[in-house]
Amino acid sequence: MKLNKVFWAIVAPLAAIVTSLLFVSGILLLKGNPPYETLKTMIDYGFTPRNIVAELNIASSYYIAGVAAAIGFKMLLFNIGIDGQYRMAVFFAAVVGGAITLPPILHVTLIIIVGAVVGGLWGSIAGYLKVKRGISEVISNIMLNVIAGGLVAFLLQPGRLGEQAEGSNNLNTPILATSGWMPTIKFLDGEIHSFLIVSVFIGIGYWVLLNKSVFGFNLRSTGMSFRAARAGGVNAPRMIFVTMALSGAIAGLTGMGTLLSETHSYSISFPAGYALTGLALALLGRNHPVGIAFAAYFWAFLDRSAGVLDLNGVPREIITIMQGTIVLSIVVAYELIKRINQKQEQRLVGSASNEQIAAPKIESEKN
Amino acid sequence: MASAVEIKGIEKKYPGVVANHNVSLTVQKGHIHAIIGENGAGKSTLMKILYGMVRPDSGSISIDGKEVVLKSPHDSIGLGVGMVHQHFMLADNATVLENVILGSEPVSFGGVIQHTAARDKLIEIAEKYGLDIDPDQNVAELSVGERQRVEISKVLFRGAQILILDEPTAVLVPQEVDELFSNLKDLTAHGLTIIFISHKLDEVLAIADEITVMRTGTTVASVDPKSATKKQLAELMVGRELPKRREVSTQPSTKKVLEIEKASYAAPDGREILHEISLSIHSGEIVGLAGVEGNGQSELIELIMGLVKTSGGSVTILGEDIAEMTSRKIRDSGVGYIPQDRQRDALLMSAPLWENRILGHQSTQPMSNGIWINKGSAQKDSERLVKEFDVRTPSINVMAGALSGGNQQKFIVGRELSGNPHLLIAAQPTRGVDVGAQALIWNYLIEARVAGMAILLISADLDELFNLSDRLAVISGGRIVAILDPESTTSEELGLAMTGEKIA
Question: Which residues, at least 6 apart from A196, have a Cβ–Cβ distance to it below 8 Å?
Fold first, then answer.
């Protein structure tokens, strides 16, 4: 039973990847590019030491976004607001961190906490609207993303909370004092953000919270059946609110590695699009912390190795198509597995009860 | 004379499960033929086959002496077979006539519905078979019994000669059942044939001309109702002797466990659903709450469970007013709750059984330790429930949704009795479960009562109410209209009280 599950958990994503590889190969052939060589160049490029480091750093951010999405999924919440939560969080963390100086560890801790709190607060707006006003979190989160983007852009202007380096058109927040920097770790040809370690702990924490704690039980119950959880004494609306806030708080940590170990300030060049990536990774990793980790690295690998395609005259959008088809096929694959497992289980249950019913026989009377 | 329906050697397998095996059945024309069996005995599959919704793997079906192949309900209707489902499929805001013709509207050239012709035909049918319906009334205004008549006329309107009725009495009060039965007699007097699916033995014995018993997917006996007894039928259905119900002679104590005093409840839109309900239950007492569904029972349960708040009056459990208590706290103070809709309110269908054991008990020992879930003890106790409560499952790791209804219910009853609560709210504890499981569940409730539990039993099954209750409270229109002694009350009197009439 257990082995069976592990087997499918590995086979399904592999099948999805193979499907999308075939699909992408077809497109490459149509375009006149040789599929095998193209993929080989990509893989070679993606696994150069320099790129592996870059991929690990990107994956670390992706991973956090994936966990944020996963905790939402457990509550049947589609947290597409990760983008806004992340942006608000990293911006205000950078502002607060840049405005003060504290002893090293305290300073970093404060910045991280500000990020989580701001992300959580921003996320809880959608939670409040859903619970109290019945507004779909998808709609409100999309709106909140736009508002967050506008708000941050507004505040980042010189003279408000941002500044502009001379001779540059890049806007950024004041550079953090070195006490607010997180060290990097030398690895292969590059430097890994030490925040990667924090992401690992986020993954572990997520798993323990969800599977071992009463809070996690209440969360999962409410996600599985609002009514059953309510009848079981769970304050289900509050759980929805809290989960949305928690998902936002985790999303708020998405950009911390970049901020603390790389840029040391928030700038307009911070990447966007973490929401869709996070949701895709949670799907691909089946909301499991280990699964999401593999998915995050794989995604980062694809993103990074796409860089070589342009050089070879292959449009890099191929990678986007590949990512899209993977998500699509994985959803289909998981649904199929779910049905197969259900059938299997019903068969087991069926034979278990038939045996017991059939055992004592009495003569049937025909009148 | 050819028989109306003749079924021979029907086989139907679903992956891994044999739903029908060697099913044979002959229904005489003009008969009321009852098919009885436990849940999962294959009644519904057989009826779906006869109605063309499911195709059998092998076997033959003859209607009026001719062998037929039914590919869809359309074919069956064409051959004069109609089905009245247990759950009505009527549009509330349309008239009776509109509902009846929906889907088979008589149209003239150009697609105009011929209302007058349809109306005349419906009135003719209603008069011929003595069905009391008004074509122009809105369905929303109709009682459950009237709605059922609309469903029946719908089928007759399509020219059905053979009617399949799927548990038609499940939703009716006793008076309505009598009415339905007299309608059915009228129909057979006009040469129509009725196949009547049920698991209520009294009714089957009262109305059927012939009874076929099904068990584990096959027809096991054909019984003449004139010579059969209820006990014989039940044992044929279950395939073994029923567990004997324990006779008890203990008296309820004088210790009040639940005390409801003039409690009212108003819905969010201001309508008063419960009006000054007063009711108390003592330790070692089962109080049965009788009433037609939708008269405030659900709200009363939610009130006691702290899921909604009173708009007046008070609810006290063991001397403590629950007004300020959360649902969690009420449960933790020793209240068990068997919700009436087990699949939606009592189970996490996609979670394994052992996790379902935790639900409702997640904040107290032994299911949890502080903030942590205690998986080990949840699994151990689930094993105990499976054994003690005869839950038929290959393991405690299967999803709750994979179990049959009766086994789900046994598990829930076991779970809610765990930890010996002071008060148990049992809503429809045996709805839709087979007689075997029902007898077991009844015994558990009686045992718990003897051990001193106070039980509020909400049920639509009068047998259950009479069998278990020490007192009967009747709820109607959100008020307690009578408190009756089950020893000295007849089911007719109870039925009258339920419909809000004064008892003479």
Answer: A56, A57, A60, A185, A257
d(CA A133, CA B163): 48
A75 is in which domain, residue-wise?
34-313
Helix (H) or strand (E) holding B212: strand B210-215
Residue B425: give the domain boundaries.
256-498
Read out DSSP for A300-328? HHHHHHTHHHHHTT--THHHHHHHHHHHH
CA distance A302 to A17: 12
Q: Does A183 touch chain B (CB under 8 A)?
A: no
Nearest by CB to residue A228, choosing from B222, B359, B393, is B359
Q: Is B97 helix (H, G, I), strand (E, B) or coil?
A: helix
The alpha-carbon gap from A252 to the nearest alpha carbon of chain B, in Å, equals 25
Is residue A49 within 8 A of residue A189, CB to CB? The reply is yes
Helix, strand or coil, per DSSP, at residue B474? strand
> Are B292 and B358 within one domain?
yes
Question: How many Å apart are CA B441 and CA B430, to the nearest integer?
Answer: 7
Calculate the CA B411 to chain-centre distance: 18
Of B327, B348, B402, the CB nearest to A349: B402
The secondary structure of residue B141, as a DSSP letter, is G
Name residues 315-344 of chain A within 8 A of B (Cβ): 342-344
For B59, phi and psi rounded to 5 degrees?
105, 170
Tell whether B226 and B328 lie within a shared domain: no
Nearest by CB to residue B239, choosing from A216, A349, A362, is: A362
Task: Tell me the CATH number at B207.
Answer: 3.40.50.300
Question: Which chain A residues are closer than 8 Å to B360 by Cβ?
Answer: 231-233
CB B444 within 8 A of CB B417: yes
The verdict on a CB contact (< 8 Å) between B394 and A364 is no
| Total number of domains in chain A | 1
Q: State the angle between helix axes of A289-305 and A317-358 in degrees (0 to 180), rounded to the nearest 10.
A: 160
- The distance of A254 to chain B (nearest Cα, Å) reads 28
A19 is a domain residue: no
Euclidean distance between the first and final Cα of chain A, in Å? 47
Whether ipTM exceeds 0.90? no
CA distance A347 to A90: 51
Q: Do A367 and B328 touch (CB under 8 A)?
A: no
Instruction: Please indicate, yes or no, if residue B246 is contained in any of the structural domains.
Output: no
Q: How open is the CA angle A319-A197-A251, to the nearest 5 degrees? A: 60
What is A27-77 written as a DSSP string? HHHHHT--HHHHHHHHHHHHTSHHHHHHHHHHHHHHHHHHHHHHHHHTTT-
Count of structural domains, chain B? 2
Give the three-state DSSP class for B461: coil
Residue A252's domain is classified under what CATH number?
A: 1.10.3470
What is the residue-level pLDDT of chain B in tens, covering all 504 positions?
578 899 998 888 765 566 788 889 999 999 999 998 876 678 888 888 898 888 888 899 999 888 898 888 888 888 999 998 877 888 888 899 998 888 777 777 777 888 888 899 999 988 888 888 888 888 888 888 888 889 999 999 988 899 999 888 877 777 788 888 998 999 999 989 999 988 778 888 889 999 999 887 888 888 898 888 888 887 888 776 655 555 666 788 889 999 999 999 998 888 889 999 999 999 999 999 998 777 899 999 999 999 999 999 999 999 999 988 999 999 999 999 999 888 889 999 999 999 999 999 999 888 999 999 999 999 999 999 999 998 888 889 999 988 878 889 999 999 999 988 999 999 999 887 777 888 889 999 999 999 999 999 999 888 889 889 999 999 988 999 999 998 888 877 887 788 765 444
How many CB atoms sit inside 10 A of residue A225's CB?
Answer: 22
Residue A152 lies in a domain: yes
